[in-house]
Amino acid sequence: MTARPGSADTALPTMTPTSPDPVAMPALPGAPYFHWRDGELWVEELPVAELARAHGTPLFVYSASAMRDAARAYQQALAGRDALVCYAMKANSTLAVLELFARAGCGFDIVSGGELERALRAGADPQRIVFSGVGKTRAEMRRALQVGIGCFNVESLAELDVLDAVARELGCRAPVSLRVNPDVDAQTHPYISTGLRDNKFGIPHEQALAAYQRAATLPGLQVVGIDCHIGSQITSVAPYLDALDRVLDLVEQVEAAGIALHHLDLGGGLGITYRDETPPAVQAWMAALLQRLDARGHGHRRLLFEPGRSLVGNAGICVTEVLYTKPGPAKSFLIVDAGMNDLPRPAMYEAYHAIVPVRPRAGTPELWDVVGPVCESGDWLGRDRALVTQAGDWLAVASAGAYCMSMASHYNTRGKAAEVLVSGARSQLIRAREVPSDLWRQERALALDVVTSTRA
Ligand SMILES: Cc1ncc(COP(=O)(O)O)c(C=O)c1O
Ligand SMILES: N[C@@H](CCCC[NH3+])C(=O)O
CATH number of the domain that 209 lies in? Predict the structure, then answer.
């Protein structure tokens, strides 16, 4: 009987083993960078088990080649255009990952002062940074202006006025795009849709022309472009084309009003395969956008993109150890050492991640709920997964490169996991595992006299 990571995974393509495997396994979504060799899971030219043994678990393992190739796919699809890929670093903001993308020629999309400092620390060129987000503070604006960032993606009229004031205080002009909310359904999970009129993001497209006219009158602002990001994990081209049409309608109106727009920022959001989704390849998706741009006479414009998930999502896995098996009358649980604090996506969005044994065993699979050690019933990583496993085994949670470590928390005073980056047959620890004292480093012992004894 073939061990499978879950009945739904049967939709994944079957991979030809490089040598006779004791147990044939379907390809992971992160293939070919994560692949089966000699009956176990490998990342590039290293066995995953070797990394787990060396660094312990939970452990995030990333493929540098997967990240580099993903960035290259964008750059190749944009070859011959004046374009910049700004990695949306919220997807995975570990410094070494940022350094990798900076060296690959990417800029960055940031959403906080913290992300700005991380990007600078990683060697980012401030001119290649765009600053999105609905709640930028004055202090964040000031710092971004002082370091000379490329563009603020302004998300409300109120923010325009504040940015104008901050820039004038500093005696400079802030480069701005307005983030337009085109009211387009991205057909994704409601929590990660951002381009509908009900969402908090962007300036409603009906108000955008007036907003541009206002921006053009403010002396602290320099209008440079237009921006639109409609959501995340988008798996079809149609919503992008709808949004692009709305953006181009606006570009034409804004320029007819005498306001020049230098660049178009078309955001990020391209989806990846977690289970059986079939998002368009970057090349095909981009070709459709470029064709529409050309057809409408805007092909000469500078283009910015803000991809996150599609650059890193399938470039990472999380390796976790089975601590206990807990068969029960209603449900059988595999209790593993990674929890919702490490991998929040299932708890937050009921998201699916494939889960496979690092060293598959032969046998008859049983159905398990894979759960973490955190004291919440929502602390699950996978439900009803068909697995052959036992305590002490390592499991790999696939597609864990995006929105896992960057959304990890310290809940239950659990330190964050370690991270390893692999390139060929070499690996580097890029984040050491946190120890408890790391977690209370900023806390202070009680000094106030607030406790009176309740004892008689
Ligand atoms: C403004 C902005 N740009 C880019 C992204 C990146 O999205 P994704 O990771 O889906 O490519 C996001 C997240 O949805 C975002 O909010
Ligand atoms: N955190 C989400 C994506 C949100 C993108 C941010 N705008 C996820 O894990 O899928």
Answer: 3.20.20.10
